[in-house]
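User: Some background: our group keeps a shared notebook of sequences we're curious about, and every so often someone picks one and asks for a predicted structure to add to the entry. Today it's my turn. The entry only has the sequence so far, pasted here. Could you supply the structure so I can complete it?
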Amino acid sequence: MTPAPAAAASAPTPTPTVLDLTRLTRRYGTLTAVDDVSLRLPAGARHAVIGPNGAGKTTLLDLIAGTDRPDRGTIALDGTDITRTPTAGRSRLGIARSFQQPSVIAELSVLDNVVLAGWPHHPRRRGAWRSPSRYRLHTESAGRHLETVGLADLAHRPASTLSHGQRRMLDLAAALAGNPRLLLLDEPAAGLTDGDIGRLLGILGGLPASVAVILVEHHVEVVAQLASTVTVLAAGKVLVTGPTPEVLAHPEVRDAYHGTGSAAGPDAAPGQGTGTAGPSATEAASGTEARG
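Assistant: Of course. Here's the predicted structure to add to the notebook entry:
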């Protein structure tokens, strides 16, 4: 009898893709802010987007969050095209965001800021502000997020009384209130003290593995500690995408990141890729600037 062939080793299950950007382009008149950007983000990824001022980083987050629309290209979440889905719809699908300037409602308490942010995502949200029992469900959830960011003791203070660092933490708690699958962070460490940055690193480092993060940040130490992969943008184009240590260590990328390159010539437009940035990385960094 011929022996049965040994069972083939099972291939590892591929990590599902949570976000797929395909050739995104956004123009403002003659200015191209985001230029043919493609990016695939696996579930649970920790991905940083860096580049000089005007590289198009914030515009890219705007396109993903739905506060702006691309002129060309597609955005898919979990394999579903959401390119034309409004911001509120994307939020309900699991996309949350923090902003360069903390977005808090000064007249509300710290707790109610988080309650309001989480309200659209709660299964028992209808009439929550009028029903004490339902409001309590929201406040319990919001309180847990405040505990996470270290603001639980300030829950009943007006948000207007918070320091800049505390407002940043409140903005993060509000973003987490919707239990996102994809968290977009726009310079979360800007203006923070060393102590606040350490607290931020602890919070973001403790996020569940199920939450994918796109981080736009100028603090290299924050990028190095949080991100496993990095995309470098300059003049709206992708210069390089790769593992964080390799990308941050490359001298051409460092020049582009700090915007110290020489003037770009007409043939200096960089291409997209996943390898090491070539000479055009430095040249393109000082070309026509885009938003972000």
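Suggested note for the entry: The chain is about 35% helix and 20% strand. The first strand starts at residue 17 and ends at 28.
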